[in-house]
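Following up on my earlier thread - several people asked me to post the actual chain instead of describing it. Fair enough. Here it is, all 353 residues.
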Amino acid sequence: MRVLVATDAWHPQVNGVVRTLSTLAQTAPRHGAEVSFLTHEGFRTFPLPTYADIRCALPAPGAVARRIEQIKPDAIHIATEGTLGHAVRRYCIRRGLPFTTSFHTRLPEYVAARAPIPESFVWRWLRRFHGRAERVMVSTRSLIAELSGRGFHNPVLWPRGVDGAVFSPRAPIELDLPRPIFLTVCRVAVEKNIEAFLALDLPGSKVVVGDGPMRAELMQRFPQAVFLGERHRDELAAIYSAADVFVFPSRTDTFGLVMLEALSCGVPVAAYPVPGPLDVIGDAPVGVLDEDLRAAALRALSIDRSLCRDFASRMTWDRCARMFLDNIAVFGQSRPAVEQNIVQRLRRQAAIY
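Reply from S.P.:
Thanks for posting it. Predicted structure:
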């Protein structure tokens, strides 16, 4: 089976959406599927306001249709709500083709943080965008409940995973910093709420891994913090392994893959008790969730690191790919087959959770 994924988020961007989709393509063949991508590559692009490193595609009329018809997919999934996502959505609707979408980002909150646009307006637009999809894939059960309450009629679960072979306890990178080391890994942007972490009165050292539009400003405002820029795979795993606690200050992430990466490296997590951390960690003894983020970070110092690794080992990308393929809408599938697939998917999800 050939699946086409349309996404406005793609390399060289570094974020959870790109990491999830890239890993999906690597894992899907084990389940009899081939994943191809329709991205901004090969199209004219323009920079997203306030995010010069993110490019939006400007496809010429007919170009998207030609790309899709060259790939000849058996199913289409629209991963993002950008220009490509809208173009592929129009293609499917005009031809009567079923498609699925996914909800990765809390756009209403992100837009409101940058412009005087009411969140209610963005939620209406999102309901319209996702309303024609057979299913909307989301990463957590709390998101299913939230979107259902906001009028989305078709959300289903598509959880995330971690590569336990890459993100594992290993010889830590030599940071030569006072202990304990409190680490956060994220895009350095307003929606990540990094200031809440950097402003904490904590012993030892604070370390930030990642890049983004706020990095220069935050480096100037918090000169005692250590900013390491972007790091990846083995080097990032060595940085995780050097940390004593991973601090996740975001209140808006729909999941937070970096929490799983940290846990897989044996690092306990401190976070706010909000969707994302509540779904990933809940009441498991691998992190501390508290509105007092400083108290959470200090209490997390006493957590057994082996528990963190064991907990993360259950969250695999193989499971992620399997549930994605259970959720997609295949062209030409009969209604009884669709219903049978839904029943099978719900049984598998009940067994996993």
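The CA atoms of residues 266 and 305 lie 5 Å apart. That should answer part of your original question.
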